[in-house]
Amino acid sequence: MILCASPHAQYLELKGEIQAAIQAVLDSGYLILGEQVRAFEEEFAAFLGTKFFVGVGNGTDAIELALAAAGVGPGDEVITTTHTAVATVSAIVEVGAVPVLVDVEPRFYTLDPAKAAKAVTSKTKAIVPVHIYGQACDLDAFQALAKEKNLVLIEDCAQAHGARYGKKRLGSIGSAGCFSFYPTKNLGALGDGGGIATSDPALAEKLRLLRQYGWKERYVSAIHGRNTRLDELQAAILRVKLKHLEKENQTRRTLAETYREELASLKEVALPETRAGSEHVFHLFALLTEKRDALLAHLKKQNIQTMVHYPMPVHLQPGYAKLARFSAMPEAEKVAQQELSLPMHPYLRQEDVLTVCKEIRAFFR
After folding, report:
1. Contact (Cβ atoms closer than 8 angstroms) between residue 30 and residue 232
2. What is the DSSP string of 112-152?
3. Is 298 in contact with 313 (CB distance < 8 Å)?
4. pLDDT score recorded for residue 264
């Protein structure tokens, strides 16, 4: 079976380093918010080019805390894309705000800046563009919009660890950048994890308070907070994997180029593009085809795993249809009907990519 993603293959490759890191945590006796978390926060902030990074329990919590720390709450509107993992929108709802769902650009499948600008009202407080599939949003446009309308710009980087926009890493450009360390991510834990990057010291301090009951000192809550902490074991594992992230991202780009070369002749398929001036990290290799479901079934018969990201835009999901404000979404609905994610991970063999491409060409022959 050729897998779409394989955290286990990465674990086997890094097994010695990971097991040593886990053993060091167990030997230390510290399991929550200790030296491993502090070290990872410093190292990931340095990698991103931000002054601070605050680890939390998962990527959804990261967005929720970033919004709350920025003062977003009940009665506020937050603009984001309808084409995303539902976690983005869930976090907005959790702070009591109203998600304003906007369509995507046709070439890159990221939040459309022009349509986002039209969605701004007097109640709009923040914008959360999602760097979907490892592709950077048009951050120049969103920075300009945020400045013009006095909005908070929070990047959803859950699929874009290490990607760049110009010379800057994604997550370092907005007021905050939110990350998930779910196991299949480019930088993934062996369990849940997340965090927020920022260069604003006041925002970082607020985030630290919010993640642990509002404590400045133990058992004394300076503000209302909650419990969402990145634990020592996951931080230690992430420190190991961070050392390999750049190399693994380059491997993803090399595999993506093979897909492009091998599938370029197929008129029935729209291959992913990379925004000019940015660097894609191919968390997913997402193509579009009108024959998506049949192609998926064909590849499954050949023991090739593929996935759909995502089969239903958030504005069509029953749990959010009444909670969000939105208008027509033709591009996002097209992506939902046609998108197929091919196998993509840094331990995928080149010969497996060639096999996948051979079977796709055979299907369209």
Report:
1. yes
2. -HHHHHHT--TTEEEEE-B-GGGPPP-HHHHHHHHHHHT-E
3. no
4. 98
CA–CA distance, 305 with 231 (Å, rounded to integer): 32
Amino acid identity at 199: S
- Token pair 């994604």 is found at 170
Phi, psi (deg, nearest 5) at residue 78: -130, 120
Q: What is the mean pLDDT of residues 154-163?
A: 98
Report the C-alpha gap between 86 and 98 in whole angstroms.
14
* Contacting residues for 239 by C-beta, under 8 A, at least 6 apart: 21, 36, 39, 40, 43
SS3 content of the chain, % helix, strand, coil (to 5): 40, 20, 40
CA–CA distance from 180 to each of 61, 88, 186, 197 (Å)? 9, 11, 10, 12
For the segment 252-282, what is each residue's pLDDT rounded down to a tens digit? Answer: 999 999 999 999 999 999 999 999 999 999 9
Encode pLDDT of 166-191 as tens digits: 999 999 999 999 999 999 999 999 99
Q: What tokens does 173 get?
A: 């450009």
Q: Answer whether 0.70 is exceeded by the pTM.
A: yes
Give the Cα separation of 234 and 31 in Å (integer).
Answer: 10
The mean pLDDT value for 104-130 works out to: 98
pLDDT value of position 166: 97
Mean pLDDT on 22-29: 97
Q: Nearest-CA neighbor of 156 among 130, 195, 193, 137?
A: 130
Question: Which residues fall within 8 angstroms of residue 197, CB to CB, at 6 or more apart?
Answer: 44, 45, 48, 50, 52, 53, 157, 171, 172, 176, 177, 178, 179
Asked if residues 172 and 166 have their Cβ atoms less than 8 Å apart, the reply is: no
Q: Is 12 exposed, middle or buried (0-12, 13-18, 19+ CB in 10 A)?
A: exposed
**In angstroms, rounded to a whole number, what is the distance separating the alpha carbons of residues 349 and 347?**
6
Give, for 270, the enclosing helix (H) or strand (E).
Answer: strand 269-270
Q: Which two tokens stand for residue 365?
A: 């022959």
| Distance of alpha carbon 323 from alpha carbon 95, whole angstroms | 13
